[in-house]
Amino acid sequence: MNEKEPPFSIFDHTADVGIEARGATLEECFANAALATFSVMTDLSSVQPLLRQNVTVDGADLEDVLVGWLNELLYISTVEQVLFSRFDVSRVTPTSLEAVALGERMDPARHRLLTEIKAATYHRVKVEHNDEWRAHVILDL
Question: Which domain holds residue 81?
């Protein structure tokens, strides 16, 4: 992957937003999907990796694991009032994921919320591998 090119892209989808994350490994691709999701929510440069949150997800297939991963992060973010800016995904299998999300408590004085994301959806979700891993997912705003 070109180092100057961001590891994800964001595209409009009717009233929602879509992301396409890329990575040399499946773990890197899933970490970049989370990075893209939180970059839609806030300016990540203002979020320090001060808190660690272990995350495990089980699913029926890679697409289910991807949606479950993003939705678990969104749930934790909402309930715990934290923003994440770094994602260390240690293992992804066709039916599970293990990772650590790093971030900090939301501080309205320093964190400007750009968009509220309700959930990652199954609409047109896809995880594929050609020359690199790519994950496509639509986020419900």
Answer: 8-140
